[in-house]
Design a protein that fits this description.
The chain is built from 10 helices and 9 strands. The strands form 2 sheets. Strands 3-2-1-7-8-9 form a 6-stranded parallel beta sheet, with helices on both faces. A 3-stranded antiparallel beta sheet has the order 5-4-6, covered by helices on one side. Bound molecules: ligand BJW.
């Protein structure tokens, strides 16, 4: 069994990190305009506003803790190899809650909030403090060149070769807590299904892609994911 797990903001919602879109209209993108905060053009136009948005989210992340869904996925990743299987864990999330929940190989296709990248020299560094337009790159010493190491709209997601290689080999594809509205991640389920994988969606409610899944499990990730992992490992 080769399982490809794709997670989104819903897996971290019960850890207190906001989702982007939800049907009640309280997601981050209902309160903040993504075109003013999550595009390279927005950062070029108003870097201070973009830094402020990510500084707020970084502080929030540092005070958050992983939940039962993160721990269950880490357990699955640890235990599958002993049963002749393997799991690839790809997340759209920029938080580090999968790692803090015990996962040891996490593919962050949209980057990582606790890292900064220098637009001048390309160096990537750990970043736990606030960033500003006066921040200095520890590698090249230039001022004002650091940006959050995240993937904005219009930018190419990270690790795409590795992701498509894992999708091609997957016998099972499981999507957890993602609305299925942002590409290319939203297209992974169709890619996996076309290659014969069994597809399963775990979400509070049907996502935009629900029709493409063979199996659906609806409820809070912290309940449904541990139950799904228990069933899989005891089967
Ligand atoms: C729960 C729960 C609980 C709640 N338990 N569940 C094709 C068609 C149309 C457009 C495009 C296209 N291809 C590309 C585009 C453009 C664009 C795009 O997709 N736009 C759409 C809006 C239409 N895509 C891009 O620009 C991407 N780049 C790109 O495509 O480059 C070309 C390329 C492709 C392939 C190879 C090479 C090159 C880049 C996208 C970057 C996205 N960036 C963001 C911000 C990152 C930094 C940050 O965090 O600020 O990523 S936007 C935001 O959305 C963030 C997320 O990772 C992403 C997905 O959101 P997610 O995780 O699904 O969260 P929500 O909030 O949408 O959903 C939460 C879900 O959880 C809901 O369903 C709830 O029900 C559920 N839930 N509580 C279980 N307790």
């Amino acid at each position: 069994m080769k399982i490809f797990v794709l997670t989104g903001a819903g897996v971290s919602a019960e850890s207190g990190l906001g989702t982007f879109r939800d049907k009640s209209g309280t997601g981050l993108w209902a309160r903040f305009d993504p075109m003013k905060l999550a595009t390279p053009e927005a950062f070029a136009r108003d870097p201070a506003a973009v830094h402020e948005f990510y500084n707020f989210r970084r502080r929030n992340l540092l005070s958050a803790a992983p939940n039962a869904a993160h721990s269950a996925l880490a357990r699955l990743q640890r235990e599958l190899p002993g049963r002749g299987g393997a799991m690839t864990l790809v997340t759209q999330n920029i938080d580090d809650l999968h790692e803090r929940g015990g996962a040891d190989a996490v593919v962050h296709m949209h980057g990582e909030l606790l890292k900064a990248r220098c637009a001048a020299c390309g160096a990537i560094h750990a970043q736990r403090d606030d960033l500003s337009t006066e921040s200095v790159c520890p590698s090249c010493g230039r001022e004002g060149t650091l940006r959050p190491h995240v993937v904005w709209f219009g930018e190419t997601p990270l690790f795409m070769d590795e992701i498509f290689a894992a999708l091609a080999e997957a016998t099972h594809f499981v999507s957890i807590g993602t609305s299925g509205s942002v590409y290319p991640a939203a297209g992974f389920v169709s890619e996996a299904r076309a290659r014969g994988a069994h597809t399963c969606e775990i979400n509070l409610e049907p996502s935009d892609n629900a029709a493409v899944f063979d199996e659906k499990r609806y409820g809070a990730a912290s309940d449904v994911v541990p139950a799904w992992v228990d069933a899989l490992l005891s089967g």
